[in-house]
TrEMBL record:
Range of residues in the leader sequence: none
Membrane-spanning residues: 12-32
Keywords assigned: Hydrolase, Membrane, Transmembrane, Transmembrane helix
Compositionally biased region (Gly residues): 224-236
The protein, known as: Class F sortase
Organism encoding this protein: Streptomyces sp. R33
Upper classification of the organism: Bacteria, Bacillati, Actinomycetota, Actinomycetes, Kitasatosporales
Amino acid sequence: MTGSGEPRSSGGGRLLTFAAWSVLVLGLWLWGREITGVPPSPSAGAAGGSSIPVPGLPVAHAPLAASVPARVDVPSMGIQAPVISRGLDAQGAIEPPPFERPGTVGWWGGGAKPGEAGAALLVGHVDTASKPAVFYGLSSARPGGTVRVVRMDGSVAEFTIDDVRVYERARFDAHRAYGQRVPGRAELRLVTCGGTYDKAAKEYTANVVVSAYLTGTTPPPGPGTGARTGAGGGAGAAVRPGAAA
């Protein structure tokens, strides 16, 4: 990971403005409209250098049937947040979660659903005018960490973090940041603002992008279900959303 982490709120704090959100997701808008169908980039982007596979990470689990996300849990950061679908506004930027709901995560409803093949995108505020928000600690994520997405069908998609990058907006490449790394794999991106806060411009200088891929799942509740299946296909103890990794 390169670049600095998000600055801590102090004094009057800072508000993640709509303008900052527009810059954050402008590349996503361009990717969604122009990059779809283009072969994926094999690496994470110029701002953070090449994405190098981390030894010892589990193999990928087969993609799941599509289901809308309901909650995201990141045990190492204490995140247990509801997820709501967000679309694009008139300017072509994704609508951020409402400012009055800083603990809520937005899922780009025009893209892949977490767990199905493709790169699903979850976005969250880094802070508010007075306190840290849901993705405040995102830049402290490390490869090997766990992200769990509880889905509307009752299943839990478990992802393993394999890459954490801070992309300077001046050199931002949406294809490399958001594009699928491995064809056919179920992937996840967690995105927020980062770098330093420019008081004059009233925006952050970078984007924090945490990349993860599907490595396990807990089936929906029902007769004979509840056993976790990992990348190797075997069953293990049931995964409780929000339980320590």
